Amino acid sequence: MSHKNHARSRPLRLGFVALSDCAPIIMAKELGLYAKHGLAVELHREVGWATIRDKVLYGELDAAHAPAGLVVAANCGLGSVQVECLTGLVLNLNGNAITLSQALWNKGVRDGRTLRREIIHSDEVYTFGVVHTYSSHSLLLREWLRNHRIEPDRDVRIVIVPPAQVHANLKAGHLDGYCVGEPWNSLAVLSNTGWCVATSDEIAPRHPEKVLMVRRDFAERSSHEHLALIAALLEACEFCTRPENRERLMETLAQPEYVSAPIQALRMGMAGTFDYGNGRVEKHSSFHLFAGEDVNAPTPDKAAWVVRNLVKSGVVKDPSLIPMERIADWFRADLFAQAAQLTSALVP
Fold first, then answer.
1. What digits encode the pLDDT tens for the residues 248-268?
2. What is the residue extent of each domain of the chain?
């Protein structure tokens, strides 16, 4: 159900980064769901997560598609000024992969065990890209490396690269691998510059990925708009999860103003199979989870996964920097429940 418009002098400014999992943000516009819920929304494509974070924190964006870890980092002042932020919606689970260069494949690397052997015997220091220090990609890459007895802070170099730039840096030889969301893994496979060694749902099944991030003062001052925004995006998440909508979804995301990637690369991660490269193609119905049982509610267990892995990974070395008693103020399942009452989406 829609509800009345709320007076505002300008449209809501909603930020996103060019990734397959920005799909609910885009489709809510294309399907007229923002308007249905009485909202005027202006989409802003940003280059990466540091820009998203800063523009939310300083009020240049009202809301944004963001890694779940950015909500925790902003509240704790990790890597930025401390600003109270929250999320009332998880946009998706899973959706990432670890890509290694074709050069490593040609040296005999096939998995984590053979990568460790290559690192031990090589004089090179291999460089891996992640898209933000506090995003899931950093945590997943570090966990995968450690699972194969590769110490992230000793045996390799990890650098920050915006999502849409990782493939170009791999192709140029500046990176030997990366962890990123789609379609930037599949673009490496498509161009034969890289191959996927693991997907994020193999490393951490059903991990929380992107959320709708807002400042707390926005959520309180513009509570009706915030709930309407969650409701519109929740309906978009339901649209994105249906297999019969995937072709339209990919065609839309491929457009220059959105992800601006080859539709073949988008299809490789969204069509029910996943092409790892070098001849390995597998069924993969859970690569992107946009809706379904326990997907979209920002529950305490999802918040706990983020905090636990920030500490476990070594990204946050002092656990006392994150007050666990506050996480229910940051991941607001109560706001999600209120917004769900405004939507016609099938919410479990």
1. 999 999 999 999 999 999 999
2. 12-93+207-259+286-340, 96-203
